[in-house]
Design a protein that fits this description.
There is one protein chain. The protein is mainly alpha-helical and 178 residues long. The protein is 70% helix and 0% strand. The protein has eight helices and no strands. It has helices at residues 9-19, 23-45, 48-65, 75-92, 115-126, 129-140, 145-152, 156-177. Helix 2 (23-45) crosses helix 4 (75-92), helix 6 packs across helix 7 (145-152) and helix 7 (145-152) crosses helix 8 (156-177).
Length: 178
């Protein structure tokens, strides 16, 4: 594994040691990146229990695949892609479904205590699965429609349609709460 130019010196060293099997170095990477992976997993899966399972699968896959991480991108970027891929695989295997979604009134742990943030998170969990996935990947994570389409196996135009639907539903729900 080559050292990443984008990673800090400490993280590059941890990556090198973790790739060599050092569990303490991997634990430090886990602690640094767990919250971001879990947040993305929660937004994609819309429920805490599947998000926790997905997060665990992501870090298991990271541990197994760390020796293949070439360092051409940031480790956080690699984990982001791994999270999306693990979510897609779980969805394809039928392990994630809308039936697992929790009640929209359930509160989730977020870094901010702003009511608007909680309302948005709650409303996002109510979105239909495909619309939620497109919204998270495009509006939250910043992927272009072509990338979203590639990730989800849909046409870019379909991605745009799902995003339009998601934004409309979110606007409707958020306006009705005020």
């Amino acid at each position: 594994m080559s050292a990443s130019r984008t990673a800090s010196g400490d993280e590059s060293d941890e990556l090198r040691r973790a790739a060599g099997g050092d569990l303490r170095a991997f634990r430090a990477l886990y602690e640094r990146h767990h919250r971001r992976v879990y947040t993305l997993a929660l937004r994609l899966s819309a429920a805490p229990a599947p998000a926790e399972d997905l997060c665990q699968e992501v870090f298991l896959a990271a541990w197994r695949g760390l020796a293949g991480f070439a360092g051409r991108s940031q480790f956080s970027t690699w984990l982001h892609r791994l999270t999306v891929n693990q979510w897609l695989m779980a969805r394809r295997r039928g392990r994630l479904s809308l039936a697992e979604a929790v009640d929209p009134e359930t509160t989730i742990a977020v870094a901010s205590d702003l009511p608007a943030r909680l309302d948005l998170e709650r409303a996002m969990r109510r979105l239909p699965e495909q619309a939620r996935a497109v919204f998270v990947l495009h509006d939250v994570e910043g992927h272009a429609h072509a990338e979203v389409g590639e990730l989800l196996g849909i046409a870019p135009g379909t991605s745009k349609a799902h995003l339009h639907r998601a934004r409309g539903l979110l606007k409707q729900w958020l306006e009705s709460e005020t």
